[in-house]
Amino acid sequence: LACSHHHCAFPVSRNGLCVRNTATAQPLYLSGHHYSISALSFGNKINPLLVCSASNERVIVWNLDECTQKVQEGFTPRGIVIGTLLGMVLHIRFSPDDQQVAVCAGNQIYMLSAKNEVVLAELDGHLAPVTAAEFCTWEKSMLISVSEDRTFKARKLCLSLYLCNFFNLKVWDYSTSQLMYQSGIITAFPLLSLLIDEENKQIITGCAEGQLWIFSLISDHNYRCVAHIDLKKEQEKFCNKVWKSGKEIGEGQNNSKPCKTDNMRPEGTVETSLPILLIEHCDFFVCFHNEENIYSSQNTSYFWIGTSTGLLIINLANFELEALLSYRDYSDLSIQIARSCALTRKVANGKVLCLIASMFEDMIAVLEVNLAALVRTQHSDLLPCGNEKSLSVIASSYIFPFRSNHCFRVIGHLCKLNYFPTGVKKTVKDKPLVFHNKIKSSGYTAAPRMAMFSPNTNLKKKEVSKWKTSCKCKNKEYPLESYPPIKYEKEISVTCKPTPIFCVQYSGDGELLACGQADKTVLIFNSSLTDVHNVFSGHDGAVNSVGWSHDKKWLVSASEDRTLRVWSVCNKEPALILGKEKFHKTARFAQFYFIDTFILLCCGAEFHLLSFHLDTTKDDLKRYKQKSVCKLVQKFPMTSAMEITSLSAVNEFYSYIVLTAGSNRALEVFDLNAGCSTAVIQEAHVRSVHQICQNKGSSYSTQQPEAYNLFLTTAAGDGIKLWDLRTLR
Predict the structure, then answer these.
(1) Which of 218, 424, 538, 590 is deepest in the core (most CB within 10 A)?
(2) CA dist list (Å): 34 to 10, 12, 56, 401, 463
(3) CATH 3.30.565.10 fits 501-616+624-727, yes or no
């Protein structure tokens, strides 16, 4: 689907193209494809107004003024074929001057001339189909693309020579075929949509799970992530806010229904994903230019977000929703779940033209959204003006004259109007075909993570204060003005006979203490050492390491028997066992990492990054079959070390840094977001380091968590050293 100014375009009859002028309601039918049209795009200029259509066998550019004139003269309009046999095209985009067309076909992007059939450049580097591409308007040589491989690339184009640099974040120099910059994987879900914010010099991209990322394009910012927005949470928060104000989502329609958040979902219904199909500029203040009670700055940017279930308006100043239009709240709109959508960028007479296609039915709807009325009905601080409706269907009769009274049918595509005449029963319901019980994902879409996820450290002040209060009730802070402890308060014997204790660790809240022993057992005591909370046995060798999860529900242990086990505090049987076949040497150290997202394990001269899923349920018929799973993400070897003697990483908040010490007396710093070693301190001690300690702080601190990770101490046979990570000294 495509919208521009007063025109909308969509495929008909499988390989035909219909362009409709909303001002004159006059359709223009164009034919030239032999296969189904898979991508459409309007040009950026009004005179002449161009539209490009693409299918498997050809890409055609149409001049709408010339085509209209040909039809009036009684001739068949013809377009210019600019590309042939490029494959399955998912997206096309004109350059700002309409001289070039970027065609996303499969894993490649073809730069084509808009005037004749010339391939100016072929850009590859994505590992999956490219879903969107946009030209940078203030830097004419840059093109941004996103893909189902969950990365985005930026490439520079030397248009005078028709050469290309592309960056994904990948930056290519086409003249030398050299990759200049590449980003890591942004999310676990395919990236579907993309928009360039010219005012703030940012790019906005959305994925199939309702996540939105904003990256800076300012030259010295190195494409850093500015914000990460969870639209599901924002939508729920917005609905709760509207309900508290006494309004309803969809108010203004007689048969509107209030929006339900996840915690209000009726029993038997299903939570669906929220794919972001479209991101477009919103002329928010154009509709309120005569009003004085606008609550936001005039410099704030607003954007439309088109999802499968509705349209949202987001404020980039505070990353909050300003308005929500849910398809299901309007009974005269028969489409409840959209497969694709398109919006006009400019407001005409206070209204925005929207085109949506149904996910489960062969149906297309053309809508007019009254932006001002939509916002007023959902904000108590904006007074209602008149009796305007926030949503209206353009036509009260069928869009085009068809042979059938209810629809016109095309091969592979059916287009209906959003009104059903009296007596006509809708036979197919526009609802997803899913089970009404929760079904655990098989995980087949999850690829090994070569980069971490962007941590969300934006915590509300209420949550911070609540957590601090609860912690103060349980634990006493050590008084800084006091001397360090010099005598013990209690001594206990953990076994009947003398047994070495190889490791001890307190849980995050200080309530429990875990001990790993040479007799192959793990003991858990309460903090006062007055009672044994639990005893875990099962290892065939001495326990070298124990580590608590962030939520204090799990304990991971590594042993001389070359196994790793994860225990539930409430159960004596291990929830996960990784056997000897996984590791070639003794497992020296194990801990949870990235707030219980991964497990780090030291084995020989390398450490393993493991992803896992814990499931303690048992099948009566297969009670000995382990349901928990663990997969290797990546191995990180130390530089010229025979064995890792110590490892340290933060699990209390999101941190990419992992510190290791080796038998070669070196200290090495790894950045797991970049997936490589970033610094090596040779001869850190005269002897091998046997302990690394970091001030791990808390993810609920009012300060930035990174401040806690600037210093560390190392202990070896020659003494203890304090290090500054900023200078590595």
Answers:
(1) 590
(2) 16, 12, 9, 24, 59
(3) no
